[in-house]
Amino acid sequence: MDEAFGRSVARPRFLTVLLGVFAVLALVLAAVGTYGILSYLVTERQQEIGIRMALGAARGGVLWLVLRQGLLLAGLGLTLGVTGAILVGRYLQTLLFGISPSDPATLIMVTGVILITATVACLIPALRATRVNPLDVLRGE
Residue 39 CB: number of other CB atoms within 10 A? Predict the structure, then answer.
């Protein structure tokens, strides 16, 4: 009986593990993409950031400037993603066990994990932006 039960749950278990692996991979790709975009934007705006700091902008202000830009993009992506998940959720009903596709606790937890990941991915380029030496940037022109 144990063998028959094991065979009957093998496919759903495999699909669940596979879905989990793809979810982690998607989270890593999202973090790397967010980091890459923000790193590029900081590099492109390095002259502007240097001028702001030369004129007296606080490091916290520069940090918030870069973080706000990255988190705005992440918030837009989350809004579209959660809306898409709710709309497509009924098609995934067969893969979900014990929860509904629009389970508020799950959506809140996933949104929180993605926001934390996006914040960390944005924080690295933002901290790099605060270490810009205004003299080096202004001499670089």
Answer: 17
For 118, the token pair is: 């996006």
CB 125 within 8 A of CB 66: yes
Between CA 50 and CA 63 the distance in angstroms is 13
Tally of structural domains, the chain: 1
> Does residue 34 lie within any of the structural domains?
yes
For residue 128, the enclosing domain spans: 27-139
pTM to 2 decimal places: 0.73
The string of pLDDT tens digits covering residues 28-67 is 898 888 888 888 988 888 888 888 888 888 889 888 988 8
CA–CA gap between residue 107 and residue 118 (Å, rounded): 16
pLDDT in tens, 74-131: 899 899 988 988 888 777 777 666 677 777 888 898 889 888 988 888 888 888 888 8
